[in-house]
Amino acid sequence: MPQIASLQPHPDRLLPADPETRAIARRLYDAVRESPIISPHGHVDPRLLAENLSFSDPASLLVTPDHYVTRMLHANGVPLQELGVGQDRLTEAQSRRAWRHLCSHWPAFRGTPVRYWFDSELSDIFGVTRRPSEDNADFIYDQIAACLTKDEFRPRALFEQFGIEVLATTDDPADDLSAHEALAADPTWNARVIPTFRPDRYLEPAQAGWNDNVTLLGEVSGIDVTDYTGYIAALEGRRRYFIDHGATSADHSHLDFRAEPLPDNEAARIYRAARSGRAREAEATAFRRHMLLEMARMSAEDGLVMTLHPGVHRNHHTPTFERFGVDTGHDIPVQVELTRALQPLLERYGTHPGFHLVLFTLDETVFSREIAPLSGFYPSVYAGAPWWFLDAPEAIRRYRSAVTETAGFGRTSGFIDDTRAFCSIPARHDMSRRLDSGYLAHLVAEHRIDEDEATETAIQLVADNPRNVFKL
Amino acid sequence: MPQIASLQPHPDRLLPADPETRAIARRLYDAVRESPIISPHGHVDPRLLAENLSFSDPASLLVTPDHYVTRMLHANGVPLQELGVGQDRLTEAQSRRAWRHLCSHWPAFRGTPVRYWFDSELSDIFGVTRRPSEDNADFIYDQIAACLTKDEFRPRALFEQFGIEVLATTDDPADDLSAHEALAADPTWNARVIPTFRPDRYLEPAQAGWNDNVTLLGEVSGIDVTDYTGYIAALEGRRRYFIDHGATSADHSHLDFRAEPLPDNEAARIYRAARSGRAREAEATAFRRHMLLEMARMSAEDGLVMTLHPGVHRNHHTPTFERFGVDTGHDIPVQVELTRALQPLLERYGTHPGFHLVLFTLDETVFSREIAPLSGFYPSVYAGAPWWFLDAPEAIRRYRSAVTETAGFGRTSGFIDDTRAFCSIPARHDMSRRLDSGYLAHLVAEHRIDEDEATETAIQLVADNPRNVFKL
Amino acid sequence: MPQIASLQPHPDRLLPADPETRAIARRLYDAVRESPIISPHGHVDPRLLAENLSFSDPASLLVTPDHYVTRMLHANGVPLQELGVGQDRLTEAQSRRAWRHLCSHWPAFRGTPVRYWFDSELSDIFGVTRRPSEDNADFIYDQIAACLTKDEFRPRALFEQFGIEVLATTDDPADDLSAHEALAADPTWNARVIPTFRPDRYLEPAQAGWNDNVTLLGEVSGIDVTDYTGYIAALEGRRRYFIDHGATSADHSHLDFRAEPLPDNEAARIYRAARSGRAREAEATAFRRHMLLEMARMSAEDGLVMTLHPGVHRNHHTPTFERFGVDTGHDIPVQVELTRALQPLLERYGTHPGFHLVLFTLDETVFSREIAPLSGFYPSVYAGAPWWFLDAPEAIRRYRSAVTETAGFGRTSGFIDDTRAFCSIPARHDMSRRLDSGYLAHLVAEHRIDEDEATETAIQLVADNPRNVFKL
User: What is the pTM (predicted TM-score) of this model?
Assistant: First the structure.
């Protein structure tokens, strides 16, 4: 092994190894590499940009809040508290310790997308030129920390450097969207930062806090939510408020995809029971499934694109959840079913003009079996980008291989980063562009499409698909 | 982009891009490219050949009846009525309009097998040299329409040009098979066009029309079907009638694979209840599963190869079904299970001499998990070719990759086009030959088998496997 | 075809075909090809080595006991009795006949790992230089039979020639481990042959013989197993006995992964009912799932690595089972679920220091969906090597592709041959090394990791991972 290993992301990284195919892929990638980033769904906090404060320290920026990173370190023996998880603000010693854990466990990330994103981020944003290791952890820490003190590393400067054209955040229906308002009102800020309506916690009576959440919803919307009619009106009102603030989509994440209607009086009865804490589990589930259908109805009426992100067993390890809270790396996928689950919804709204439904999954088996056939018939249905654990090179290739033959390229959503790791946004979009260029080059090299078609498709995947699908 | 894009299917299309592997694949493909086509299962109407009338117009031939095509256009915003779906005969204006929709949505098919088949059909059969587009839609329409007036584009002439040696159709048990008889009696016609026994609608008491169907079965067979014994005898009689007309297989498509015996008196009881319209849903399901087992018993006795095509939720979008009928592009796959479902059937007939069971799936997960292990033990079980949505290049590669290691090449059925799109038959078989050549070349290039073995296997897959599996 | 086909395994076999990637893979493979074999889980009989008798004949060594081989011959029409299955000892005529069946069906194995292992075994161990066929079956038989009479083909000599450093066998809790004791006490024998605790048949009250097995367990352990407390103590005692004889792991194979606690008094009640033959099926299942959790508790306490091999429908074809017994080629995989099934177990022991849980599957869909996310969070969970039907080149590639991006290389178990085919051990480990070298080379060729990292990882997969995961 070399004494000092360098960190130099290769210009051809992720392009196919076969020389002929690689040459085609390079040309396709060149056509999209500099295109602006459209991020129609993600988890960046809008206050980050509204306030534009300097990032505090390397670990708080790159390690602690990123469950992709912390779960792998945890699996490799680092306790979450060593990484600052669950703490508000890290001291320098704490940040440095967390950073050292990352660097000394660098080999654990080989072959993972986290490694790929980090390589790009460290090199392209912070100018790091050495591969992280236990030995150089402090050196790199200091290098990044020095950057973070400079104005060109504040959120807005990075946002512009990243070439982001649209960034959608994910927001609670009760949020007043003041950060979005501030950005929109700021004459020095031109980029589009828009909210997304994320109502899950108002739709699941079985979840802790539902009752308080609904009460809050009533207060924020100024509508009496004593009965079901008011509850529906309050949700509709908040959707309108979000639309007025630029939202184009609503995001839904539940355990399953099922959407099943209840008669209105039955929905009203369960609502009353749930509000007084007397809904049984089966009733709560029925209500949630009914409300998913209601959300589709509202989307058909008000035009908010509906995205569905289901199929995760959240907080698998109770002791970790109790100590560190949600999103700490132990959400584990489960098998999902769409064909039957979505039938009642698609029966009603599948061909409704302007209704858009974007389907995500962590269960790859439904790509070719269910998502592609559905999006290859229903004009409203789009195959969402590979999500979460599947947002990775080999998984993205499997996605294109599984979806394209049945649904083509035009029925896919375009890339969605879905990240709270702000600095990883350009690396993620770049990864997607490289992989799509490679997949298209593979079709060209096998004489399945011509290169001019591949070029046009590569551009559409980056520019047209997300704009059309998310109505941007 | 070039001003005028050409349509020139490349001689090496679908062969692997790596130069060394491609060279091997070319040699393998050369050994099978001209072999006669054996089509042991499909949906071409035998009257097409018996009557040998000219095809009426381009859209009626290539667009309207092909749900692979119409579903994708529908997904991309073209209403089915714009494509002539549900109409008996198209006016020229209607045909032209449908054709224009196809051409103007040509990019929607990039990366799909429909595009691949069309490229071959348009070029090889109709001499089209330009890539379809909105601009040249009428030009190409006229070119095809002019062809269709000529004698060499009548069904029988095309059949011979395609090099088809055997074509199996799919037929209702009540069919008198007069078209097959006419062809067999015609001294000017030498090719083999044989029927296939497809009894689904007589086996599912829960399906609309079952009672009338069974009454018809009794009439056609001349057997009193008042009770279960007569019903069984009538089915056996019609199988015999089909065998006498050249049939070698029976095709079964149900929602699931399950085959479960009922005691004879219980089967008889449910039969009587169903005939008088009083069978409950659970009874109807039990009866269907019992009858699937009965079909296996009959196959073991009379020798008809049993093919199973299960796992589709038919007619997913009710409004489309009600307006346009069945097979209009919204049949959506569901997950299937075979190991337990087929255990009672294989326990009884799995090692029965002469019993052949060909298993198809739209749920790829069962390829390596269930179909390959079953066909790698039971001498009766064959892994059917990739079916429907899976009859596509990447899916076929996944099939070979998933099945071969556990079951070898000899336990697979050989290619089955299963199509009603007559003109796509040569392109579909050619696609399969290219892909199998590529897969075998990959094994040779990695020194896993020798090239003489690969050549022999390529030939067997095209000639021996379908003949042996389907007893042709 | 050539008149006489040769058998010459190519030095580059299984390495990627692309020249640039192949060159990298060759270098990586060179770094591990000669490393000692660590086999932490398999089914070689320890008496083979303790007694060190000559192998009797080619078929008894290479055909009859290997269900990978016999099932494929059976599928291709050879009755199991023709292969000697179910017989104690073969006459020369019987052995020769079985061997001829193998050779005349050589083409049936094309593209399967059995073919790959045989090529290596025949060439590397027995010096066979011709591809087996009907014509040369007797010639090759004689060649192998002649080898088997020589001392250098006795088990211990082969063991040393194979370069095996550690071999774990699989043993019944009631076994006195005298073969292991004999080997450990033998001053002429230096290699490590260790037992594995395999308690399935003591944990499933629904299985035939359970009651007798438990009685035996009580006798062997010298503990009164009249009640549940004694039964638990007897199991703990036998684990301790195995640990004292070198065991480092316990192996568990059940129909599903589910682990669910029962209250102790309920477990005691079912135990008593089962002992008196009055446990209902649901109770027996609940008891088994409770006992799986108990096994995890014991592993957390005594440190035996817990391996789980579930998801097989055993003895699918009853007539074959009744005539020939277990392990005769008709065990068929079923779908499995881990996320929910293992939650109670991981909730309790997932972060327990020193607890190791290695997960195997025959249902590939759980690789990316469940196994990788679990092993990418829980420090105790490791993704087991591709098992049984999946221990094959394409399946191993799918495994690395599905697992690595979410869990990295470090969370995988390293290769496990799990075989009773003694002579296939080196070929199996060699296959794994070639494939991992190819996968790593693919990452290097796409500039995702550097070559020094790939080299280090290749070595770790062969040396460190199995040692660390199995505590060797």
Answer: 0.97
